[in-house]
């Protein structure tokens, strides 16, 4: 976690919280992880991620732009298998830390 963090308190319906926590647990995430992911994307993308509030046409334009950016990126390539292996390792480490902690 970054050294300069702040606390965020939110109010949400208890049933929504319980159901969301159970769904996220199934993929190795906590509610805090999910909120952190959402807010990071909002900060990075300058608004809510596509699919949450935009039309299909707007999402299509955004997606095409992101694909073109990826194709134009001169950075090092990573295979799908390597990306999945890296993500699986991160998820497994999260689960292990939760069980050990």
UniProtKB/TrEMBL annotation:
Signal peptide: none annotated. Keywords: Toxin-antitoxin system. The keyword Transcription regulation does not apply. Transmembrane segments: none annotated. Residues 56-86 form the Stability determinant domain. InterPro entries: Arc_rbn_hlx_hlx, PaaA2_dom, RelB/DinJ. GO terms for biological process: DNA-templated transcription; regulation of DNA-templated transcription. It holds the Pfam family PaaA2. Belongs to the RelB/DinJ antitoxin family. This is Type II toxin-antitoxin system RelB/DinJ family antitoxin. It comes from Paragemmobacter kunshanensis.
